[in-house]
Amino acid sequence: MNSFNGYLFGIRSIVLLFLIFIFSADAQTTYTNSRLGYTIMLPENWYVINTSDSQDVFFDINSSGQTYLSIVRHQIDSGTIETYWTKFHFLMYLSTTQEWEDPWGTILALDSSQTSTIDGAWAPQAFAQFFTLDSINNSWSEYIIFVAKYRSGYELYAIGDTLDLKTKGAEYSQILQSVTFF
User: Fold this and answer.
1) Spatial separation of the C-alpha atoms in residues 55 and 45, rounded to whole Å
2) How far apart (Å, rounded) are the C-alpha atoms in residues 55 and 53?
C-alpha cells in the first residue's frame, strides 16, 4: 500500500467513525401499536412501560424527572366528524383545566391554529400547570395534543414534574409529534 492509499484509508476510517458517532447519538426506535393504530419514533432510552386496549405509556429510563408520555385512543362513532371530535375534546380540556376546584390549573400556552397538525390532521395542543391542596404533590404539568384520524380520536400527552416539562418540553413535543396513524 503506497502512502496515498494509506492516507485515503485513514480519511475513510475517520469519516466512517464520525458518521457512526452522529447516527448513534440520535438513535431512535420505531414503535408500532397495531391495536391502537399508530407508529411513534422513540429515542433509544424511551420504553413502553404499560399498555392496554386503549393506552400506551412511555418512560425515559435515563431521566431523573417523573414525566411520562402517553397515547390514548378513543373510537369515534360514525356520526361524528373527526375535526369536531378534536375541537370538542380540546375545548373541554381548556374548560375543565381552569374550572375544577381541586386540582385546579392554568393554561400556560396553547396552539389551536390550522398549522398545528400531526400526520396531516389538525392537532391543537396545550401546556397547563395544575395545583392541588395536597401538600405532597402541590403542582405538576401536562402537555397535551388532541387529534383524530381514521375514525379514532387520540390524546397524546406528557405529564409530570413541572420543572422537567418546562425544561424538556420541546423534546417531549417532538417525540409526540412524530406519531403517524394507520
Assistant:
1) 20
2) 6
Which stretches within the chain are classed as H helix?
Answer: 3-25, 82-99, 162-176
DSSP annotation of 77: P
Q: What are 72's three cell numbers?
A: 390514548
Collapsing DSSP to helix, strand or coil, 27 comes out as coil
In angstroms, the CA 171 to CA 41 distance is 12
C-alpha cell recorded at residue 34: 397495531
Q: pLDDT tens for residues 156-180? A: 999 998 889 999 999 999 999 999 9
Tens-digit pLDDT profile for residues 54-80:
999 999 998 877 899 999 999 999 999
Note whether 151 and 75 are within 8 A (CB): yes
Other Cβ atoms within 10 Å of 93 Cβ, number: 21
Give backbone dihedrals phi and psi of 177, rounded to 5 degrees, phi first.
Answer: -80, 0
- In which order are the strands placed within the sheet that holds 38-43? 28-33, 38-43, 180-181
